[in-house]
Amino acid sequence: MSEQSASNGPLSPDLLAKMDAYWRAANYLSVGQIYLKDNPLLDRPLTLDDVKPRLLGHWGTTPGLNFLYVHWNRLIRERGLNMIYLIGPGHGGPGLVANTYLEGSYSEIYPHIEQNSDGIKRLFRQFSWPYGIPSHVAPETPGSIHEGGELGYSLVHAYGAAFDNPSLIVACVVGDGEAETGPLATSWHSNKFLNPATDGAVLPILHLNGYKIANPTILARIPHAELEELMRGYGYEPFTLEGDDPLVMHQQAAAVFDTMLDRIAAIQKAAREDGSTARPAWPMLILRTPKGWTGPKFVDGKPVENTWRAHQVPLDQIFQKPEHLHQLDEWMRSYKPHELFDEKGKFRAELADIAPKGRLRMGMNAHANGGLLLVPLKVPNFREFAVKIEGRGQHDFESTRILGHLLHAVMQANMDTKNFRVFGPDETASNRIGDVIVGTGKTWMAETLPVDEQLSETGRVMEVLSEHMCQGWFEGYLLTGRHGFFSCYEAFIHIIDSMANQHAKWLKTTREIPWRKPIASLNYLLSSLVWRQDHNGFSHQDPGFIDHLLNKKADVVRIYLPPDANTLLSVSDHCLRSRHYINLIVAGKQPAPQWLTIDEAVAHCTTGLGIWQWASNDEGGPEVVMACCGDVPTMEALAAVNLLRERIPDLRIRVVNVVDLMALQPTSEHPHGLPDEEFDQLFPVGVPVIFAFHGYPWVIHRLTYRRHNHDNIHVRGYKEEGTTTTPFDMCVLNNIDRFQLSLDAIKRVPRLKSQVDAAEQWYSEAIQRHKLYVSENGDDLPEIKNWRWTESNA
Ligand SMILES: Cc1ncc(C[n+]2csc(CCOP(=O)(O)OP(=O)(O)O)c2C)c(N)n1
Ligand SMILES: [Mg+2]
User: Fold this and answer.
1) 442-477 residue pLDDT tens
2) Residue 220 and residue 209: Cα distance in Å, rounded?
3) If you take atom 17 of ligand 1, which residue's CA is the nearest one?
4) Residues 221-226: what's their mean pLDDT?
5) Using one digit for the tens of pLDDT, what is the confidence trace for 287-310?
6) Nearest-5° angle of CA 503, CA 430, CA 498?
7) Would you say the CB of residue 217 lies under 6 angstroms from ligand 1?
8) Is 680's C-beta closer than 6 angstroms to any atom of ligand 1?
9) Is 152 in the pocket of ligand 1 (CB under 6 A)?
10) What does DSSP assign to residue 563?
11) Are strands 522-527 and 582-586 parallel, antiparallel or unpaired?
12) N or C: which end of the chain has fewer CB within 10 A?
């Protein structure tokens, strides 16, 4: 019966035979990578000496991935497609390594993995081997922009790659287990943001192999009609391909893919040539094949193929059970390696020939090595947007609104290259960078109503209430060689902690891979900060993303806390131009005092931290250093300086502001770290430092614990006290307010010992007065609310 069906379909008997052989070769090489360290082409019966001591890898997902690869190859060749392939279940790494080897990309990038049996032996041996290659579709894998180690992000990465890449088709396999994750479940909605006229296409394949590690998947156990309805509900046109007879499946796959590619072409033609603006129902495929397809059907009497048992290494007791070794030998020979590779171990030319050539090979597609395509961002002169300082701290501006002007100019300057997008979970306007929307609009392919504003099919600001989607789109966009900016509420950026981890790992690893070219940095602006969430309260107060990023490799992460608009401009300019970092910028959106002229701001940001001489009177050496990092802490520290001057006019105070958090670390820990000698000049040994910090106080201790003066650094920061209260009360609750900072200084300066009791009394009276006023009036005391820096006493 299969013979008969196999003749029905678009593939000629010759091509069918070759595609099936190609698939067998990929499967063979995948199994070989998991198991063998020698005897790569089974020239002799397998022995235990040929088998790796540690059997690591995942078989179950791999044959399905390989099946698709050979079909993409045909489509690329026949239609001249520009295609990349993202693998959700990245644990199918052996399959992608095998395919990039068969198409020749792998040996071009890694010449020691030659196209002969020695090369195959090395290919096998290196896999999951100490200092070899990882088992996933890792940065080391040609053609990959998606490791797939942490499941959930394949589809959102695929869409990120497709935006503004009108000729690109991103084939994307979604694991049926992966489809259960939150990020993946929402990613289907990306089709409401993909413009067929100006973006590329995403071809989603839901790989319904039925199982995860130890369980069935939800989508495999609901009625097929319900699953199709789900996909229709997401706005797709679902196609289904189901079976397990290889030759029949090849024919049916070729037919369904031809139809789907025709659909994509028709959608694009309608939008590009006929001016259609309707949101299309893009095709997607539900691929139902057995997990571990073509692998051992039973092991130790238990079913393996088409069950969860096929997930990892189906025969895992090779050294304990002779039967397992025998079964492995049989399994590998079932692919008929000697029909696939010649006597020298070279993949047979007539089979190799059906793969695409040159840059069309998916392992060689430049979109999967985005740095190759990176066009530098044009960043207009940020000084033009500077705030004029007429009296330090005498006028308030919303710092992020000023940044919005710069971002708007950046957006406009790069409209021709279409390589800059701004992402945000419905907070672009709320974070007051809304200017960036003007002139381009917000991407939106769904319905619009007259009440809507600034929605546009060609918008370049992407807003969706899913931090996962913002992050994932942005990553996909960056990894394919473009630029962007992501603004988010400070507390809720934690939602993508884990995605940021994965991106940091990618950056760290690719930094060490010479053929991977640097990409643009992932820039975060966190606003709506902990100190000014008085209307939202405790749920919105969490500065811990700083702590999270600090764990990442020093050569990947940069963290900036500009204290005012001009420093924010300078920092942002730097971040937008930088490469291969994760840049975190923390800056407030509320009206706040402005401190530095643009020239001073540039100089300050260049060193990362420094003495604010205009606020200091430390001639002869400071008795106390008032350090500050972050906009609200800077204001409180300066207000404390004013209070101290009133009480103790001759106290020698130095003000140090930190804008680049990493500068606090020793040079040995971070490239931005200040050398010890310079640190000691700023924070002289023996001089107490009262440090007002935006985030959790132990961050500062962690960064400075090796500094000579560490014992004298006393940090105030957010200590998880919050509620819906006034801005100043937030500071009081966390003991970072000006009264506390002043008291701290008095307590720490030895010569002021006699004044401590009186100062404590003064402090508690001030706080009591504040508390009473706030409870009665629901607002801060006028002298707090209207406080201005008093320059004269500096
Ligand atoms: C976010 C996340 N949670 C858990 C895991 C552990 N894990 C690895 S593979 C896997 C099952 C994946 O199933 P599926 O997506 O169906 O892939 P396939 O069946 O193709 O192997 C799980 C739970 C993971 N890698 N990522
Ligand atoms: Mg599965």
Assistant:
1) 999 999 999 999 999 999 999 999 999 999 999 999
2) 8
3) 175
4) 98
5) 999 999 999 999 999 999 999 999
6) 20
7) yes
8) no
9) yes
10) S
11) parallel
12) N
Three-class HEC string of 355-380: CCCHHHCHHHCHHHCHHHHCCCCCCC
Strand order through the sheet with 201-207: 82-87, 168-175, 201-207, 282-288, 236-242
Closest ligand 1 atom to residue 175 Cα is 15
Cβ 213 under 6 angstroms from ligand 1: yes
At residue 216, the 3 state secondary structure works out as strand
Q: How far is the CA of 62 from the centre of ligand 1 (A)?
A: 13
- 744-762: average pLDDT: 98
- Decide if pLDDT at 780 tops 70: yes
CA 561 to CA 701: how far, in whole Å?
17
- Asked whether the beta carbons of 304 and 292 are under 8 A apart, the reply is yes
pLDDT (0 to 100) of residue 404 = 97
Residue 283 in contact with residue 260, Cβ under 8 Å? yes
Q: Which of 15-24, 141-150, 662-671 comes out lowest in average pLDDT?
A: 662-671
State the CB neighbour count (10 A cutoff) for residue 720: 12
pLDDT of the residue at 2? 47
If you measure from the C-alpha of residue 122 to the centroid of ligand 2, how many angstroms do you get, rounded to a whole number? 29
Residues with C-beta atoms within 5 A of ion ligand 2: 175-177, 209
**Ligand 1 centroid to 302 CA: how many Å?**
22
In this predicted structure, what is the pLDDT of residue 555? 87
